[in-house]
Design brief:
Length: 173
């Protein structure tokens, strides 16, 4: 069983992960509007990944006998001055998620909840990857500056990462 404090914290994180998916869908919409399909594709894949994170927590709460509490999801920002500004927001978002996961780990330690501590280690590793990948793209955008050619090349590079759900849904047609 989860303590009330841990259950509340896990539900908060579940809702943060759902917001993260919404956040990335908002960014994908921004990039699609700018005809940057590679950036949009990357963001859609990230949105799907965030939904996967939410599902992990959702399932874990039930596995430990808890009750899921879904909250209202805040509207994400969908306009940015540039791809650079958008990725600055992405990187800061991921840093915030990392801090939230670290607080959960600290709480699991404080509560001597070894199962939850173990469960959260996957998220710790995942956040290291999330920050590194977004920072790498952010660094490239800083190098590119205002270069349309550089943005075009990076857009083509980012298109390599694509969302899977749409492809699965299209297979059923």
């Amino acid at each position: 069983m989860l303590s009330e404090k841990m259950l509340k914290a896990l539900n908060e994180q579940l809702n943060k992960e759902l917001f993260s998916a919404y956040f990335y869908f908002g960014l994908a919409a921004y990039f699609r509007d700018k005809s940057l399909e590679g950036f949009a594709s990357w963001m859609e894949a990230q949105a799907e990944e965030e939904l996967g994170h939410a599902l992990r927590i959702y399932d874990y709460i039930f596995d430990r006998g808890g009750k899921v509490e879904l909250e209202r999801i805040e509207k994400p920002k969908q306009t940015f001055e540039s791809p650079l500004k958008a990725f600055e927001a992405v990187y800061l978002h991921e840093v915030g998620v990392t801090q939230s996961i670290f607080k959960l780990v600290d709480l699991a330690r404080e509560e001597n909840d070894h199962a939850t501590h173990n469960f959260l280690q996957w998220f710790v590793k995942e956040q290291v990857e999330e920050e590194a990948s977004t920072k790498a793209i952010l660094d490239k955008l800083k190098i590119i500056g205002d270069s349309p050619q550089g943005t075009f090349i990076l857009d083509r590079e980012l298109k390599a990462r694509s969302a899977q759900l749409r492809a699965l849904l299209n297979q059923k047609e």
